C-alpha cells in the first residue's frame, strides 16, 4: 500500500490499458501514427530515467503490467478502459476480452469496464449485454473520435448514442467514461470535443459521466459543464503527468478543477502505459499549489484532498469498500507474488 510521509493512501488507478500495438498487429497507417503519437506523449511527459523504448512500449504484456502497477505497491486497484480502434489494428488495440484475461489472474485488484460504439447498432447493443453478463462491467469507456470506414467519429448526444446510454441504465452500467480532450494522430480533435457531454449528462441523471482528460485543452468548457451537471466527474489522466515538467500548469489545472467541481468529483488515472504509476503516483502526491494559486482559487491540495482524488472518489463510484479490500489484500494473488501483504496488515 502506498505510503506518503508516514500516511497510508489507498490508490485506485481509474484509467489503465493493456494494449497491443506491435508491428504484427498494426493494420493501417493510422495504427502506426497512433502509437507513434502515444510514444511522443510518453517521452514528452516522463522523467528521462523512466522512459521506455518504443519496442517495449508497443506491447509490454500482462506480466510487466502487473509488476508495474503492484510490484512496489504504488497502486492498490486498477480500472481497465478499453479502446478498440479496429480500423487501425487487426485484433484491436486494447479490448475487453484481452483485459479480462489479466483481471482473472488478480480478481481482487482489477475492475473491467466495457465499451460501445453506437455505429454498431443492434449487434452493438447485444455485445454490451454480453459484456455485462460475462464480466459484470460497471462502466464503459467511449472513444467518440474512433474512425469507422468513412466515418471519423460520433457524438455522445446523438439519438443513436442515447439508445446505448438507455441500455447502460437498464443493465446497471452506471459509470460512463468518454475520452474528451487531447487528440492522437490521425484522429480529429473536434471529435473529442467535450461539448456533447452536457445534453447526455442532463438526459441521464442516473448515470455518472467521468470525462477523461478533463476536456484538455478545453478545460474551461469542461469546468462550466461540470459545474452545472452534478453527475459529471473529471478523470485526471493526461493532466497528472504535467506535474513532472509543468508543475505550475498542473497547479493551475488542479486549482480550476477544485474550484469548479470540488474535491469529491476528481479521479486519478495514469493512462498506463502512457505513463507509469510506479513514479506518477509519487509525483502527484508531492505536487503542491503555489501560495498565489491557493489565494486565487481558494482551495487546498492537501493530504485529505489527495486521498479522495487518488482512490476514495473512485471507490465511491465503483462501490469499493476500502477497509474490506485492505483485509483481502493481506493475502491475495498480487500480495503473494510481490511480497506486499505486510503493508496491508500494518494498515489495520
Automatic annotation (TrEMBL):
Q: Which InterPro entries match?
A: Amidohydro-rel, Metal_Hydrolase
Q: Which CDD domains match?
A: metallo-dependent_hydrolases
Record keywords: Hydrolase
Q: Where is the Amidohydrolase-related domain?
A: 12-320
UniProt GO MF annotations: hydrolase activity
The lineage's top-level taxon is Archaea
Protein name, please? Amidohydrolase
Amino acid at each position: 500500500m502506498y505510503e506518503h510521509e508516514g500516511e497510508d493512501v489507498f490508490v485506485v488507478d481509474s484509467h489503465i490499458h493493456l494494449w497491443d500495438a506491435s508491428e504484427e498487429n498494426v493494420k493501417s497507417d493510422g495504427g502506426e501514427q497512433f502509437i507513434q503519437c502515444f510514444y511522443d506523449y510518453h517521452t514528452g511527459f516522463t522523467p528521462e530515467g523512466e522512459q521506455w523504448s518504443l519496442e517495449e512500449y508497443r506491447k509490454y504484456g500482462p506480466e510487466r503490467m502487473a509488476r508495474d502497477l503492484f510490484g512496489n505497491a504504488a497502486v492498490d486497484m486498477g480500472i481497465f478502459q478499453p479502446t478498440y480502434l479496429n480500423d487501425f489494428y487487426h485484433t484491436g488495440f486494447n479490448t475487453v476480452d484481452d483485459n479480462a484475461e489479466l483481471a482473472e489472474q488478480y480478481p481482487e485488484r482489477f475492475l473491467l469496464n466495457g465499451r460501445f460504439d453506437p455505429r454498431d447498432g443492434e449487434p452493438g447493443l447485444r455485445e454490451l449485454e454480453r459484456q455485462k453478463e460475462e464480466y459484470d462491467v460497471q462502466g464503459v469507456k467511449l472513444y467518440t473520435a474512433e474512425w469507422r470506414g468513412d466515418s471519423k467519429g460520433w457524438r455522445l448526444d446523438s439519438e443513436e448514442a442515447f439508445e446505448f446510454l438507455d441500455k447502460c441504465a437498464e443493465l446497471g452500467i452506471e459509470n460512463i467514461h468518454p475520452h474528451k480532450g487531447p487528440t492522437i494522430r490521425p484522429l480529429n480533435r473536434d471529435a473529442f470535443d467535450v461539448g456533447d457531454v452536457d445534453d447526455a449528462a442532463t438526459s441521464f441523471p442516473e448515470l455518472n459521466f467521468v470525462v477523461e482528460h478533463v476536456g484538455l485543452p478545453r478545460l474551461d468548457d469542461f469546468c462550466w459543464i461540470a459545474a452545472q451537471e452534478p453527475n459529471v466527474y473529471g478523470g485526471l489522466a493526461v493532466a497528472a503527468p504535467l506535474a513532472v515538467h509543468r508543475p505550475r500548469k498542473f497547479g493551475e489545472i488542479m486549482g480550476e478543477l477544485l474550484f469548479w467541481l470540488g474535491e469529491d468529483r476528481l479521479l486519478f488515472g495514469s493512462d498506463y502505459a502512457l505513463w507509469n504509476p510506479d513514479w506518477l503516483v509519487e509525483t502527484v502526491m508531492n505536487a503542491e499549489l503555489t501560495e498565489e494559486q491557493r489565494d486565487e482559487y481558494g482551495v487546498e491540495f492537501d493530504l485529505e484532498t489527495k486521498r479522495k482524488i487518488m482512490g476514495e472518489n473512485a471507490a465511491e463510484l465503483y462501490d469499493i469498500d476500502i477497509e474490506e479490500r485492505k483485509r483481502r489484500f493481506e493475502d491475495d494473488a498480487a500480495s503473494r507474488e510481490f511480497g506486499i501483504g505486510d503493508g496491508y496488515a500494518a494498515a489495520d
